[in-house]
Design a protein that fits this description.
This protein is α+β, with helices and mostly antiparallel strands and 392 residues long. Helices cover 68% and strands 7% of the residues. This is Glutathione S-conjugate-exporting ATPase Abc4, variant 2.
Amino acid sequence: MAATSTCCNLIHGFAHNKLNGHHLHMYITYSKRCNLDYTRSRYNNGEIVFHNRIYTRQLFLLKPRNHPHRQQVSQSGFGEQVEEEEQESVSRETLIWRAIKLPIYSVALVPLTVGSAAAYFQTGMFSARTYFVLLASSVLVITWLNLSNDVYDFDTGADKNKKESVVNLLGSRNGTFVAAYLCIALGFIGLTWAALQARNMPSIMLLSCAIICGYIYQCPPFRLSYRGLGEPLCFAAFGPFATTAFYLLQGSASAMSNLPLTRTVISVSILVGLTTSMILFCSHFHQIESDKEVGKMSPLVRLGTARGAEIVKVAVMALYALLITFGLCKALPLSSIFLCSLTLPIGNLVMRFVQENHKDKNKIFMAKYFCVRLHALFGAALACGLVVARVV
């Protein structure tokens, strides 16, 4: 009854606000969370008169559409507050989707797939069980990277205005922290199990180096990303370390227990590292102001967006130049060269989009997702080319 009385007083206070001018209708929708059911209102002698019945439901006011007094009605405070709650409810779904960062998990899939394809190209052997154990473990490691990055950026204040931060969405810094380190523990157990099954200790050392790169990239007391060293660490972690480690683990299923480090695996690891670093680089375009405030000196903070756009252009051109160079050196088969060349349109899209929108914060955040597409498609083409070359 107290809640009902409070809600009645609030509505009646709103109802007796004087409005000048035109006839006004306000319609009310209601849901099960409420204590009142207001079915309709009408404008009468300068006042809004509500017709209501008492139920055990809660109301939501919908502002009248296309009405000259729409803004004045919202100034009462009640209608505006409810509309903001509705907008927040709708936008929260989008924020949750952004927080999950599902496309970013391609950085776990691509090194594993390319490394496994390189091992198949070398030996003709492939272990599905090892592949899926490594995939699950890698996803857990990437989840740790994302969650712990949100935690430590929350600590420094870098994410104070980032609504899609997991910490901001959950409202729990400690809960996110615990979840992050539970993921890394489970992921490392899976990686270690795969290495022990394959009896290949060099692979677990390489994967440990990759995880260490992730730690010193974002975690205290190192936080090397704040010194602009995130991209080199990203290149090393996902390129030479992770891709080569997955190559060794898959190759251990063959009669050759210790695969040699061939020109092929070195070449593909460089290409994978480059496309992965491009994702990280482009993710900073729309965060320059917030990074400056907390002293996070990312490359784009130092260079600015115009020079950053030129670097993206050079990086994409270097990617395909290296592809051709490795093909001419016979480090990569012609099938990989051909299939990877089919990704040129998405590479051109990345360059053009960044060049045209690097100053627009409302658009440039999409650059990292275009880089994710390039990373995934280029990696898939690279792996397929290796498999085709072995089969043929």
